[in-house]
Protein backbone atom coordinates (compact mmCIF):
# COMPACT_ATOMS: atom_id res chain seq x y z
CA UNK A 1 0.00 0.00 0.00
CA UNK A 2 1.30 3.45 -0.91
CA UNK A 3 2.01 6.05 1.75
CA UNK A 4 -1.21 7.79 2.77
CA UNK A 5 -1.05 11.55 2.29
CA UNK A 6 -4.75 12.43 2.68
CA UNK A 7 -7.57 10.91 4.71
CA UNK A 8 -11.15 11.47 3.53
CA UNK A 9 -13.45 11.31 6.56
CA UNK A 10 -17.10 10.40 5.90
CA UNK A 11 -19.49 10.44 8.89
CA UNK A 12 -22.46 8.23 8.04
CA UNK A 13 -25.94 8.41 9.53
CA UNK A 14 -29.23 7.54 7.84
CA UNK A 15 -28.19 8.36 4.27
CA UNK A 16 -28.40 5.00 2.48
CA UNK A 17 -30.19 6.63 -0.47
CA UNK A 18 -27.20 8.84 -1.27
CA UNK A 19 -24.31 6.86 0.19
CA UNK A 20 -23.10 5.07 -2.94
CA UNK A 21 -22.79 8.29 -4.94
CA UNK A 22 -20.84 9.82 -2.06
CA UNK A 23 -18.41 6.93 -1.63
CA UNK A 24 -17.98 6.37 -5.36
CA UNK A 25 -16.88 9.99 -5.71
CA UNK A 26 -14.23 9.33 -3.07
CA UNK A 27 -13.16 6.02 -4.61
CA UNK A 28 -12.79 7.56 -8.09
CA UNK A 29 -10.27 10.25 -7.11
CA UNK A 30 -7.41 10.79 -9.56
CA UNK A 31 -5.07 11.13 -6.58
CA UNK A 32 -3.49 7.88 -5.40
CA UNK A 33 -2.04 8.29 -1.92
CA UNK A 34 -5.15 8.47 0.21
CA UNK A 35 -7.51 6.52 2.42
CA UNK A 36 -11.24 6.70 3.07
CA UNK A 37 -12.47 6.48 6.66
CA UNK A 38 -16.22 5.92 6.93
CA UNK A 39 -17.57 6.34 10.46
CA UNK A 40 -20.90 4.57 10.96
CA UNK A 41 -22.54 6.65 13.69
CA UNK A 42 -25.00 3.91 14.68
CA UNK A 43 -27.10 4.53 11.57
CA UNK A 44 -30.57 2.92 11.81
CA UNK A 45 -30.92 2.23 8.07
CA UNK A 46 -28.96 -0.04 5.72
CA UNK A 47 -25.95 2.27 5.54
CA UNK A 48 -23.67 -0.06 7.50
CA UNK A 49 -24.30 -2.93 5.10
CA UNK A 50 -23.36 -0.68 2.18
CA UNK A 51 -20.18 0.38 3.98
CA UNK A 52 -19.23 -3.21 4.73
CA UNK A 53 -19.47 -4.04 1.04
CA UNK A 54 -17.10 -1.17 0.15
CA UNK A 55 -14.68 -2.31 2.85
CA UNK A 56 -14.71 -5.80 1.34
CA UNK A 57 -14.15 -4.51 -2.20
CA UNK A 58 -11.48 -1.91 -1.36
CA UNK A 59 -9.57 -3.26 1.67
CA UNK A 60 -6.42 -1.22 0.91
CA UNK A 61 -8.25 2.09 0.58
CA UNK A 62 -11.45 1.94 2.61
CA UNK A 63 -11.78 1.67 6.39
CA UNK A 64 -15.05 1.27 8.28
CA UNK A 65 -15.32 2.36 11.90
CA UNK A 66 -18.54 1.72 13.81
CA UNK A 67 -19.34 3.59 17.01
CA UNK A 68 -22.11 4.54 19.39
CA UNK A 69 -24.01 7.57 18.15
CA UNK A 70 -22.09 10.78 18.82
CA UNK A 71 -23.58 12.99 16.13
CA UNK A 72 -21.86 14.49 13.10
CA UNK A 73 -19.20 16.23 15.17
CA UNK A 74 -18.35 13.12 17.16
CA UNK A 75 -18.05 11.04 14.00
CA UNK A 76 -15.69 13.58 12.45
CA UNK A 77 -13.57 13.58 15.61
CA UNK A 78 -13.24 9.80 15.43
CA UNK A 79 -12.06 10.13 11.84
CA UNK A 80 -9.49 12.79 12.76
CA UNK A 81 -8.03 10.65 15.53
CA UNK A 82 -7.91 7.52 13.37
CA UNK A 83 -6.57 9.23 10.24
CA UNK A 84 -3.15 8.29 8.90
CA UNK A 85 -2.86 11.08 6.33
CA UNK A 86 -1.00 14.33 6.90
CA UNK A 87 -4.13 16.07 5.58
CA UNK A 88 -7.82 15.43 6.20
CA UNK A 89 -10.92 16.29 4.18
CA UNK A 90 -14.49 15.98 5.46
CA UNK A 91 -17.20 14.63 3.17
CA UNK A 92 -20.80 14.41 4.38
CA UNK A 93 -22.47 11.15 3.35
CA UNK A 94 -25.21 12.75 1.25
CA UNK A 95 -22.77 14.92 -0.73
CA UNK A 96 -20.01 14.16 -3.24
CA UNK A 97 -16.74 15.57 -4.55
CA UNK A 98 -15.13 16.19 -7.94
CA UNK A 99 -12.71 13.48 -9.06
CA UNK A 100 -9.77 15.93 -8.99
CA UNK A 101 -10.46 17.29 -5.51
CA UNK A 102 -7.56 15.58 -3.76
CA UNK A 103 -5.09 16.08 -6.62
CA UNK A 104 -5.74 19.82 -6.82
CA UNK A 105 -5.92 20.53 -3.11
CA UNK A 106 -2.94 18.40 -2.10
CA UNK A 107 -0.77 19.93 -4.82
CA UNK A 108 -1.76 23.42 -3.66
CA UNK A 109 -1.10 22.62 -0.02
CA UNK A 110 2.33 21.19 -0.75
CA UNK A 111 3.37 23.89 -3.21
CA UNK A 112 2.35 26.72 -0.90
CA UNK A 113 3.34 24.99 2.37
CA UNK A 114 0.01 25.95 3.91
CA UNK A 115 -2.22 24.53 6.65
CA UNK A 116 -5.52 24.73 4.76
CA UNK A 117 -6.89 24.83 1.22
CA UNK A 118 -10.35 26.30 0.65
CA UNK A 119 -12.39 25.64 -2.50
CA UNK A 120 -15.87 26.51 -3.74
CA UNK A 121 -19.11 24.60 -3.17
CA UNK A 122 -21.63 23.62 -5.83
CA UNK A 123 -24.99 23.73 -4.04
CA UNK A 124 -27.46 21.26 -5.59
CA UNK A 125 -31.10 21.78 -4.59
CA UNK A 126 -32.96 18.51 -5.16
CA UNK A 127 -36.34 20.18 -4.56
CA UNK A 128 -35.91 23.12 -6.93
CA UNK A 129 -33.74 21.10 -9.35
CA UNK A 130 -31.17 23.88 -9.47
CA UNK A 131 -27.50 24.51 -8.77
CA UNK A 132 -25.73 27.47 -7.21
CA UNK A 133 -21.99 27.89 -6.84
CA UNK A 134 -21.14 29.30 -3.43
CA UNK A 135 -17.84 31.12 -3.38
CA UNK A 136 -16.13 34.10 -1.88
CA UNK A 137 -13.45 34.96 -4.41
CA UNK A 138 -10.11 35.67 -2.75
CA UNK A 139 -7.83 35.43 -5.79
CA UNK A 140 -6.87 32.09 -7.33
CA UNK A 141 -3.92 30.54 -5.49
CA UNK A 142 -3.53 33.46 -3.10
CA UNK A 143 -2.12 32.76 0.35
CA UNK A 144 -4.61 34.03 2.91
CA UNK A 145 -4.93 34.46 6.64
CA UNK A 146 -7.67 35.77 8.88
CA UNK A 147 -5.88 39.11 9.01
CA UNK A 148 -5.67 39.36 5.21
CA UNK A 149 -9.21 38.10 4.54
CA UNK A 150 -11.39 38.64 7.64
CA UNK A 151 -14.57 37.91 5.67
CA UNK A 152 -13.58 34.25 5.85
CA UNK A 153 -15.45 34.39 9.17
CA UNK A 154 -18.83 34.74 7.49
CA UNK A 155 -18.30 33.52 3.92
CA UNK A 156 -16.93 30.01 4.37
CA UNK A 157 -17.92 28.46 7.73
CA UNK A 158 -18.51 25.01 6.23
CA UNK A 159 -16.13 22.28 7.39
CA UNK A 160 -16.40 20.38 4.12
CA UNK A 161 -14.98 22.63 1.40
CA UNK A 162 -11.49 22.46 2.88
CA UNK A 163 -8.36 20.36 3.05
CA UNK A 164 -6.75 20.66 6.50
CA UNK A 165 -3.44 19.67 7.96
CA UNK A 166 -4.45 17.10 10.57
CA UNK A 167 -1.92 18.49 13.05
CA UNK A 168 -3.92 21.74 13.32
CA UNK A 169 -6.66 19.80 15.13
CA UNK A 170 -4.25 17.66 17.14
CA UNK A 171 -1.91 20.48 18.21
CA UNK A 172 -4.67 22.94 19.18
CA UNK A 173 -7.04 20.40 20.70
CA UNK A 174 -9.87 21.97 18.70
CA UNK A 175 -12.42 19.31 17.78
CA UNK A 176 -16.08 19.31 16.78
CA UNK A 177 -18.69 19.44 19.56
CA UNK A 178 -20.89 16.37 19.81
CA UNK A 179 -24.66 16.17 19.37
CA UNK A 180 -25.21 19.86 18.69
CA UNK A 181 -26.33 21.92 15.73
CA UNK A 182 -23.99 24.39 14.02
CA UNK A 183 -20.91 22.28 14.74
CA UNK A 184 -19.18 23.70 11.64
CA UNK A 185 -19.58 27.28 12.81
CA UNK A 186 -18.38 26.44 16.32
CA UNK A 187 -15.23 24.75 15.01
CA UNK A 188 -14.11 26.08 11.63
CA UNK A 189 -13.88 29.68 12.81
CA UNK A 190 -11.62 28.65 15.70
CA UNK A 191 -9.44 26.75 13.25
CA UNK A 192 -9.09 29.93 11.17
CA UNK A 193 -7.66 31.71 14.20
CA UNK A 194 -5.02 29.00 14.56
CA UNK A 195 -4.18 28.65 10.86
CA UNK A 196 -1.54 31.04 9.58
CA UNK A 197 -1.54 30.29 5.87
CA UNK A 198 -4.54 29.33 3.73
CA UNK A 199 -4.71 28.81 -0.03
CA UNK A 200 -7.89 29.48 -1.99
CA UNK A 201 -8.85 27.56 -5.15
CA UNK A 202 -11.52 29.14 -7.32
CA UNK A 203 -12.99 25.76 -8.29
CA UNK A 204 -16.33 24.18 -7.20
CA UNK A 205 -14.97 20.82 -6.07
CA UNK A 206 -17.56 19.99 -3.40
CA UNK A 207 -21.19 19.18 -4.26
CA UNK A 208 -23.55 19.95 -1.40
CA UNK A 209 -26.99 18.38 -1.61
CA UNK A 210 -29.79 20.56 -0.23
CA UNK A 211 -32.51 18.25 1.04
CA UNK A 212 -35.91 19.41 2.25
CA UNK A 213 -35.86 16.82 5.05
CA UNK A 214 -32.33 17.46 6.26
CA UNK A 215 -31.79 18.35 9.92
CA UNK A 216 -30.92 21.97 9.22
CA UNK A 217 -34.15 22.47 7.25
CA UNK A 218 -36.33 21.53 10.24
CA UNK A 219 -38.46 24.62 10.67
CA UNK A 220 -40.17 24.32 14.02
CA UNK A 221 -37.54 22.50 16.09
CA UNK A 222 -36.52 24.43 19.20
CA UNK A 223 -32.99 23.36 18.34
CA UNK A 224 -32.90 26.27 15.91
CA UNK A 225 -32.13 28.30 19.03
CA UNK A 226 -28.77 26.54 19.31
CA UNK A 227 -27.44 29.16 16.91
CA UNK A 228 -27.41 31.49 19.93
CA UNK A 229 -25.07 29.14 21.80
CA UNK A 230 -22.90 28.76 18.69
CA UNK A 231 -22.52 32.50 18.16
CA UNK A 232 -21.83 33.04 21.86
CA UNK A 233 -19.20 30.31 21.80
CA UNK A 234 -17.36 31.94 18.90
CA UNK A 235 -17.80 35.43 20.37
CA UNK A 236 -16.32 34.36 23.70
CA UNK A 237 -13.48 32.50 21.99
CA UNK A 238 -12.44 35.69 20.19
CA UNK A 239 -12.78 37.67 23.39
CA UNK A 240 -10.58 35.16 25.20
CA UNK A 241 -7.95 35.50 22.46
CA UNK A 242 -8.10 39.32 22.75
CA UNK A 243 -9.05 39.68 19.08
CA UNK A 244 -12.75 40.49 19.48
CA UNK A 245 -12.38 44.16 18.59
CA UNK A 246 -10.22 43.35 15.57
CA UNK A 247 -12.89 41.11 14.04
CA UNK A 248 -16.05 42.50 15.64
CA UNK A 249 -17.72 43.62 12.41
CA UNK A 250 -17.11 40.26 10.76
CA UNK A 251 -18.49 38.34 13.75
CA UNK A 252 -21.47 40.68 13.85
CA UNK A 253 -22.20 40.05 10.17
CA UNK A 254 -21.77 36.32 10.72
CA UNK A 255 -24.52 36.58 13.35
CA UNK A 256 -26.70 38.64 11.01
CA UNK A 257 -26.38 35.95 8.34
CA UNK A 258 -26.97 32.93 10.55
CA UNK A 259 -29.54 34.30 13.00
CA UNK A 260 -31.54 36.92 11.13
CA UNK A 261 -31.30 35.75 7.53
CA UNK A 262 -31.35 31.98 8.12
CA UNK A 263 -32.67 30.96 11.55
CA UNK A 264 -35.57 33.41 11.79
CA UNK A 265 -37.03 32.59 8.33
CA UNK A 266 -36.77 28.91 9.28
CA UNK A 267 -38.79 29.48 12.46
CA UNK A 268 -41.60 31.63 11.08
CA UNK A 269 -44.84 30.66 12.77
CA UNK A 270 -43.19 30.12 16.15
CA UNK A 271 -43.22 33.53 17.82
CA UNK A 272 -41.32 32.27 20.87
CA UNK A 273 -38.31 31.34 18.77
CA UNK A 274 -38.35 34.37 16.50
CA UNK A 275 -38.66 36.71 19.50
CA UNK A 276 -35.76 35.05 21.32
CA UNK A 277 -33.56 35.26 18.26
CA UNK A 278 -34.40 38.93 17.76
CA UNK A 279 -33.80 39.71 21.43
CA UNK A 280 -30.43 38.01 21.37
CA UNK A 281 -29.25 40.01 18.37
CA UNK A 282 -30.26 43.30 19.96
CA UNK A 283 -28.53 42.37 23.19
CA UNK A 284 -25.30 40.98 21.74
CA UNK A 285 -24.99 43.29 18.71
CA UNK A 286 -27.13 46.37 19.49
CA UNK A 287 -25.88 48.35 16.47
CA UNK A 288 -25.96 45.51 13.94
CA UNK A 289 -28.16 47.46 11.50
CA UNK A 290 -25.17 49.72 10.74
CA UNK A 291 -22.82 46.85 9.89
CA UNK A 292 -20.68 47.76 6.90
CA UNK A 293 -21.16 44.42 5.16
CA UNK A 294 -24.95 44.79 4.86
CA UNK A 295 -24.48 47.10 1.88
CA UNK A 296 -22.88 44.21 -0.02
CA UNK A 297 -25.90 41.94 0.37
CA UNK A 298 -28.02 41.28 -2.73
CA UNK A 299 -31.08 43.53 -2.89
CA UNK A 300 -33.47 40.69 -2.07
CA UNK A 301 -31.57 39.80 1.10
CA UNK A 302 -31.42 43.46 2.18
CA UNK A 303 -35.21 43.63 1.84
CA UNK A 304 -35.51 40.38 3.77
CA UNK A 305 -33.36 41.80 6.57
CA UNK A 306 -35.44 44.98 6.71
CA UNK A 307 -38.66 42.97 7.03
CA UNK A 308 -37.13 40.90 9.83
CA UNK A 309 -35.93 43.98 11.71
CA UNK A 310 -39.47 45.40 11.57
CA UNK A 311 -41.05 42.01 12.36
CA UNK A 312 -43.09 42.05 9.15
CA UNK A 313 -43.12 38.27 9.07
CA UNK A 314 -46.31 37.93 7.03
CA UNK A 315 -44.74 39.80 4.12
CA UNK A 316 -41.56 37.80 4.62
CA UNK A 317 -43.52 34.57 4.28
CA UNK A 318 -45.04 35.78 1.03
CA UNK A 319 -41.76 36.77 -0.63
CA UNK A 320 -40.11 33.60 0.64
CA UNK A 321 -42.75 31.51 -1.09
CA UNK A 322 -44.10 29.96 2.11
CA UNK A 323 -47.77 29.52 2.91
TrEMBL record:
Gene3D superfamilies: Spore Coat Polysaccharide Biosynthesis Protein SpsA, Chain A (3.90.550.10). Coiled coil: none annotated. It holds the Pfam family Glycos_transf_2. InterPro entries: Glyco_trans_2-like, Nucleotide-diphossugar_trans. Residues 7-132 form the Glycosyltransferase 2-like domain. SUPFAM superfamilies: Nucleotide-diphospho-sugar transferases. One of its GO terms (molecular function) is hexosyltransferase activity. It comes from the Bacteria. This is Glycosyltransferase 2-like domain-containing protein.
